[in-house]
């Protein structure tokens, strides 16, 4: 069954088993490899993408449910929040191994789109689902704050 | 990985003596192209490029690419090594690029190991002089090319931020403009290095990691991101118990899944070949395997702990001894004792083990993140029956390692080669699931410590005995040859050569055996020795009526000024005035590891009956800090990784031998809300750079435990602190 959806502003048709997780459709079939695999069970956040405007774990999202949906991956993430987040991420040297960071950046962007001036608690809540084994968490907090400030300026 | 790693793989001297003497560099335009032809450079040098040596490439567009011989696993090798080159070349930081060097032990051996490898936090220390000399030589060649071109004395030429200039004539040229001419010039025999007082990049703040942007935009390419034409994805089913083997396979259901191409039995388990990852993972779930468990570990964790504890109590292989500890304990006014149990730990790096292999029957190309490419190379060639020259390895960005990708037995390289052999010529991506990774062993060794201390009437420590039991990491590996007197230093490092005056002391080890494979895990032995020593010492000091900081300082050996300095510094940072009395308590701990000295103070509160760490102060002496921000990042990461383990990580075996944890739901690493605020102070030092990837970790566990004991009255002696 072919499913048509919008990925990074382009309409794509996926003729795959409807149970195929969005993660593997993106990676194996659309070759959008910025979105990563870490656990496959919605525990680590490495696979986070924007689905119809909200951060979502693509590893547990079957494409069968996505007819007409709009997906933004790290490759297509744009707008002032995304730019501010990525600029802060680079300036503060957030990434270490970098593997979790696509997911972190998508989650942080999603947070700032909804809550431009998040409190400490709101940052903690929004980012708790994204594991980073390199423990770059302190810098993630700082970068979100810096991105938020730069958006306000 | 441990740094004391040399003789087992000493490389043959190369015909040009590349590694002769002090790891000196033979510069040669002729050397680099040859080296490249023999190996797998990720990209070919642009025509017209200046390739002064195996480490540096100057392109006509002014970019300077440094081939980094250490795998970038997050520790900043792709920033630190180029920075050393840029400093001596007087390049501008913005023109620098990093590329992973191919597997080539002759060119890129780790001076500490004699083979190409990354581990033991040695990356920067052993490259410090090599990379600087490479940069200085490249600079000299550019200068001499400019001197010829302009007809002026080389001595009058200056270089700054990537611009070569001659003041008197006003001539100026970029590196790129001079590249072709420089490539034709002779290679300097000897080059002068900068006086450290003239450094502009080494030690500077505001250096952006070369990989920061690509890793924030999803562009950095990891092994999992490699796709080859016609590539199949391969998933593995491994034995459910360590030491079990395949008895029989029923592949009928797996083969019925659309996209599953084949199911093959390999020495390490059962491989499912498929058109894509989803099909491979479904096939993995559908294949039915019977196992032969006759040689398997069937003990559960409780039984193993019991055995190890009994062994620790009678441990007799002496690793260190001074004075007469037994007499001191016998004559002590008071004897304190405690036993500590540390669980198996999984590295659980975010990118599960993976590798891509493509072969045509006579040659193979591999894409992976291997921390010891030299031995992986030999394993791949050996399993495939190919000459080493027919195998090339491309080192990719790697989603963490923490030691996991430095396996002396090269089990993953062997599995990858077997996947290719069983599949026939073609391209394959072997991708472990999180479950493969979590349950696959190669854990931090389960360890039991038994400590005893004797006190005199005044509260002074008169005797100290530490006995411990765990499996050896070196045993059964190529490193076994280095075990002297049957001792594996990675089992107890950090429990010996303490900074404290303990005239009557003994450290003894009992080696345990189990089919559960064990491996170096970020900071290796120090992960448990620092905890056992520094929490026990804290209790003993308290019993003797001593303050944790002053008590340690009073016992400090005169020949350990660097330990003293970090402890004094951290006490000052934290405004230390004892463990405190309110809702927030303070604990201190220190450890020297991988050549660096770290002391930390943790501020801890009680959150729902469990410790919550609010702040950490960290003082580090790692010699000269080449990139201070990378040092801080590694301290933060080490603290986070260590805190993660002591709070909530354990791999346990159920009775019968199955691993209880499957994925990140049962094995629970630290998440962002639990990350403390961290303040790092780097002590100024002119000593050569020492490790930073691991040394941030050892003190955090005991610092937190000491604070928690002050708060709760409970001494945590079985980890983790917050059982799942
Ligand atoms: S891979 Fe989706 S949450 Fe881990
Ligand atoms: S940067 Fe390595 S896992 Fe987050």
From TrEMBL, chain A:
Family matches, as CDD domains: fer2
Tagged with keyword Metal-binding: yes
Residue ranges constituting the 2Fe-2S ferredoxin-type domain according to the UniProt record: 1-77
Family matches, as InterPro entries: 2Fe-2S-bd, 2Fe-2S-bd_dom_sf, 2Fe-2S_ferredoxin-like_sf, 2Fe-2S_ferredoxin-type, 2Fe2S_fd_BS, Beta-grasp_dom_sf, Diverse_Oxidoreductases
UniProt xrefs under SUPFAM superfamilies: 2Fe-2S ferredoxin-like (SSF54292), CO dehydrogenase ISP C-domain like (SSF47741)
Alphabetized GO MF terms: 2 iron, 2 sulfur cluster binding; metal ion binding; oxidoreductase activity
Metal-binding recorded as keyword: yes
Keywords tagged on the record: 2Fe-2S, Iron, Iron-sulfur, Metal-binding, Oxidoreductase
Name of the protein this chain belongs to: Isoquinoline 1-oxidoreductase alpha subunit
Organism: Jannaschia seohaensis
TrEMBL record, chain B:
Molecular function in Gene Ontology: oxidoreductase activity
Domain annotation Aldehyde oxidase/xanthine dehydrogenase a/b hammerhead: ranges: 217-295
SMART domains attached to this UniProt entry: Ald_Xan_dh_C (SM01008)
Gene3D superfamilies given in the database record: Aldehyde oxidase/xanthine dehydrogenase, a/b hammerhead, Aldehyde oxidase/xanthine dehydrogenase, molybdopterin binding domain
Coiled-coil stretches: none
InterPro entries hit by this protein: Ald_Oxase/Xan_DH_a/b, AldOxase/xan_DH_MoCoBD1, AldOxase/xan_DH_MoCoBD2, AldOxase/xan_DH_Mopterin-bd_sf, N-heterocyclic_Hydroxylase, OxRdtase_Mopterin-bd_su_IorB, TAT_signal
Protein name as annotated: Isoquinoline 1-oxidoreductase beta subunit
């Amino acid at each position: 069954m072919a499913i048509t959806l919008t990925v990074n502003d382009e309409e794509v048709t996926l003729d795959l088993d409807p149970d195929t997780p969005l993660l593997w459709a993106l990676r194996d079939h659309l070759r959008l490899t910025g979105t990563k695999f870490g656990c496959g069970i919605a525990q680590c956040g490495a696979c986070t993408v924007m689905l119809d405007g909200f951060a979502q774990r693509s590893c547990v999202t079957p494409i069968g449910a996505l007819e007409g949906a709009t997906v933004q991956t790290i490759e297509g993430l744009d707008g002032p929040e995304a730019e501010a987040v990525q600029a802060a991420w680079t300036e503060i040297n957030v990434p270490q191994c970098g593997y979790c960071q696509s997911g972190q950046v998508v989650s942080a962007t999603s947070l700032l789109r909804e809550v431009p001036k998040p409190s400490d608690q709101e940052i903690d809540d929004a980012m708790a689902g994204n594991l980073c084994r390199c423990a770059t968490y302190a810098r993630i907090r700082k970068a979100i704050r810096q991105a938020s400030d730069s958006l306000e300026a | 990985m441990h740094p004391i790693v040399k003789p087992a793989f000493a490389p043959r001297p190369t015909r040009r003596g590349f590694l002769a003497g002090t790891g000196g560099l033979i510069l040669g335009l002729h050397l680099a192209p040859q080296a490249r032809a023999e190996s797998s450079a990720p990209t070919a040098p642009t025509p017209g490029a200046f390739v002064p040596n195996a480490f540096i490439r100057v392109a006509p567009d002014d970019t300077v690419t440094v081939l980094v011989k250490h795998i970038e696993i997050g520790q900043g090798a792709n920033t630190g090594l180029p920075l050393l080159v840029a400093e001596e070349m007087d390049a501008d930081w913005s023109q620098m690029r990093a590329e992973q060097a191919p597997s080539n032990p002759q060119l890129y051996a780790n001076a500490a190991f004699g083979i190409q490898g990354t581990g033991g936090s040695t990356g920067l220390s052993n490259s410090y002089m090599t990379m600087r000399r490479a940069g200085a030589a490249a600079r000299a060649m550019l200068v001499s090319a400019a001197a010829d071109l302009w007809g002026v004395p080389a001595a009058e030429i200056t270089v700054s931020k990537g611009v070569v200039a001659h003041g008197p004539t006003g001539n100026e040229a970029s590196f790129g403009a001079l590249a072709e001419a420089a490539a034709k010039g002779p290679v300097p025999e000897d080059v002068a290095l900068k006086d450290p007082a003239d450094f502009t990049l080494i030690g500077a703040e505001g250096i952006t990691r070369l990989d920061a942007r690509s890793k924030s935009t999803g562009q950095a390419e990891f092994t999992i991101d490699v796709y080859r034409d016609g590539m199949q994805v391969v998933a593995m089913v491994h034995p459910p118990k360590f030491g079990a083997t395949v008895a029989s396979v029923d592949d009928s259901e797996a083969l019925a899944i659309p996209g599953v191409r084949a199911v093959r039995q390999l020495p390490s388990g059962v491989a499912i070949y498929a058109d894509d990852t989803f099909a491979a993972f479904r096939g993995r779930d559908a294949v039915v395997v019977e196992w032969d468990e006759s040689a398997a570990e069937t003990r559960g964790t409780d039984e193993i702990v019991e055995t190890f504890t009994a062994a620790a109590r009678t441990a007799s292989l002496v690793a260190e001894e001074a004075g007469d500890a037994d007499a001191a304990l016998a004559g002590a006014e008071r004897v304190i004792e405690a036993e500590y149990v540390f669980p198996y730990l999984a590295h659980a790096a975010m990118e599960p083990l993976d590798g891509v292999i493509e072969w045509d029957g006579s040659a193979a190309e591999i894409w992976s993140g291997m921390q010891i490419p030299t031995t992986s190379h030999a394993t791949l060639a050996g399993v495939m029956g190919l000459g080493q020259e027919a195998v090339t390895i491309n080192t990719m960005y790697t989603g963490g390692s923490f030691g996991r990708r430095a396996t002396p037995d090269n089990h993953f390289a062997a599995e990858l080669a077997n996947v290719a052999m069983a599949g026939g010529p073609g391209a394959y991506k072997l991708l472990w699931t999180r479950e493969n990774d979590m349950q696959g062993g190669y854990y931090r060794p389960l360890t039991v410590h038994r400590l005893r201390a004797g006190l005199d009437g005044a509260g002074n420590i008169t005797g100290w005995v530490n006995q411990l039991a765990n499996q050896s990491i070196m045993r059964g590996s190529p490193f076994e040859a280095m075990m002297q007197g049957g001792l594996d230093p990675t089992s107890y490092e950090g429990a010996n050569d303490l900074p404290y005056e303990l005239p009557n002391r003994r450290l003894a080890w009992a080696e345990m055996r189990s089919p559960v494979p064990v491996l170096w895990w970020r900071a290796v032995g120090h992960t448990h020795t620092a905890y056992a020593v520094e929490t026990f010492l804290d209790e003993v000091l308290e019993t003797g009526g001593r303050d944790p900081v002053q008590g340690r300082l009073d016992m400090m050996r005169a020949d350990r000024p660097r330990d003293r300095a970090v402890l004094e510094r951290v006490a000052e940072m934290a405004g230390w005035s004892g463990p405190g009395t309110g809702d927030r308590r303070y604990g201190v701990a220190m450890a020297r590891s991988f050549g660096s000295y770290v002391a930390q103070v943790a501020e801890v509160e009680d959150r729902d009956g469990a410790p919550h760490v609010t702040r950490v102060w960290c003082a580090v002496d790692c010699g000269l800090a080449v990139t201070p921000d990378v040092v801080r990042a590694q301290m933060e990461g080490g603290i986070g990784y260590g805190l993660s383990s002591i709070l909530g990580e354990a791999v346990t075996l159920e009775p019968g031998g199955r691993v209880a944890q499957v994925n990140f739901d049962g094995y629970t690493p630290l998440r962002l809300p639990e990350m403390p605020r961290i303040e790092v102070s780097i002590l100024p030092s002119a000593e050569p750079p020492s490790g930073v990837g691991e040394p941030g970790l050892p003190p955090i566990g005991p610092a937190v435990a000491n604070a928690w004991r002050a708060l709760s009255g409970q001494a945590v002696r079985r980890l983790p602190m917050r059982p799942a």
